[in-house]
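Workshop exercise sheet. Pairs work together: one partner reads the sequence aloud, the other fills in the structure field after running the prediction. Swap roles for the next sheet.
Pair: D.N. / O.F.
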Amino acid sequence: MKTAMNFLVTIALAGLLSGCAVGKDPRDPFEGFNRAMFTVNDKLDQYALKPTAEVYRDNVPSFVQTGVYNFFGNLGDVWTAVNNLLQGKIGDGVTDVMRVAVNTFLGFGGVLDIASEAGMQKHKQDFGATLGVWGVGSGPYVVLPIFGSSTLRDTVALPADMAGDVWGDVRPVWQRNTGRVLRIVDLRAGVLDAVTLIEEAALDRYEFVRDGYLQRREYKVRGDAPPKRQRDEQEEQQKEEQQKVKPVSSWQDLQEPREFGAVESAPQVPPVMAEGIRLRLSPAVRQRAEPGPSPS
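Structure field:
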């Protein structure tokens, strides 16, 4: 698996260095190559992964799917704990270690997520985010074969993430590979509806996926602090609306409470990002989403 991963990364880097056209977005200078690879990955998903995930979702009992998700999520918490500790997030790292201990010994090897029920928050970290916390810039956006969206920093960190995967030490090899396929299919089945919504709503799916990935990675590195560009835009907007609404101390104050699943909490979306997503919706979808004029 490591050899195959190194081969795919080599192909991607070779494509990036082969003179691809420079994109308009400074974060995406290899847009020509990335769009081509995005199309290849999309076809692989359309004809292989998505149909398999649909069969899995429709025929495997939901409690089994939940157990599969929890089991591999528990294994992933090990590497998340390591990265949280490397990032200096001692509290989160200790929580991750406790989650692994509780779910492994009380949750039948992680099949049951007892830790979340007990109020231990689940985190998700990787070595690419750790490099970002250490001050390494993200570099240009790239689309890797099969792996999909990434950045130069995350691509460099990918071998470490592969080595940190506890499941990679399972033997015999056929069991390890079967588990990896099962994990991928289960994860794809979990986002079938979300991907369908993007396919129907986004004017440009490539830009939608790229912008969403880059913003999510930036939030993962920065924590709860919004990016500087969004902070500046938000401060300017707050000044304009100062006479209409009461001042707010942070962008979190602008959010309505949302309920996220017990499995993992997601960061709230700042208004600027929400507006960007709204503008990328097709006019028909946007018109349905916006409220009409109130009756007089």
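Discussion prompt: Strands lie at 141-144, 148-151. What would you look at next?
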